[in-house]
Structures are given as structure tokens and as C-alpha cells.
Amino acid sequence: MDKRIVFLGGLGLGAGLMYLFDPQAGSRRRKRAATKTGGAWQRGGQGLGAFSRQVGTRARGMAEGVRVRLRPAVADDMTLAERVRERLGQAGVASLSVDVSVLDGCALLAGRVREGDVDAVLRAAGSVPGVRSVENHLDVHAGPEDEPAPDGSPARAS
Prior knowledge:
alpha+beta, single chain, 3-stranded mixed β-sheet
């Protein structure tokens, strides 16, 4: 180590000790330093406590999520039908054109669906916890030109 660095470090340490152990004002300075460092320790402890509570809360939430996924609650058929409709909406499928009914955990799907959406509808319905099987009674059509108009009249060719 360079001798100048050691000398400057020793000089700084000596000045600090003289400052704290000054016979006239050293006692007051030591008390003030203890109060400030004690407050910093206390604030740090409070922050650490808040952080540990937050981590604990998140860990409990994650454990609860895993528990729910591993052991899904048994739901009645009407609740399962609502969950299937919701999942169809999340999958981006026109769920208004699909009629959903559930009987003993078996989802029965009926209605008109575009040809490209059939797999997504079946996959979405089967992914709902509590649905044991899916029966496909869907009427598949080729595309938008095959869909009826909103007022119920047949679609017009453009």
C-alpha cells in the first residue's frame, strides 16, 4: 500500500477520534452520533420488517395459488357453464354464438362456429377446471360470408 494513503488514513482517523473525544464537546458529539446512528438502525429495521412481511404475504399467495390449482374446488354445473363461457370469451371466440350447457361435468357445446375456431373452442372448454369432457355439437361454417345478418335474415353476397 502506498505510504501516503496510509498516512492520510491515519490522519483522518486521528482527527475523527479527537473530534469525538474532545474534553469540552466530545460528550455531546458522541450522544448526537449515537442518536443519529440509532435512528438509522431503527429505520433500517422497520424497512426490513416491511420487506419481510411483503415477501411472506407473496409467498402465502403463491402457495394458495398452487393449492387451488392442484385441488380445484368442485363446482356445480351452472357455475361450470359460466366458467366455460368466460374462457371462450378470453380465447377470443365469438362466445355469443356458442350455447354451453354442462351436465355432470360434461360440457355440451352447440351453435355456429367458423371452421378455424373449432379447435380453439374445444381447447378452451376443456381447459376449465372441473370439466371432465367436452361434447362437440357445433355447426361449422366456412367463413363470415356464411354467417347470418344480425337481424336474422340470410347473409347477402357482396
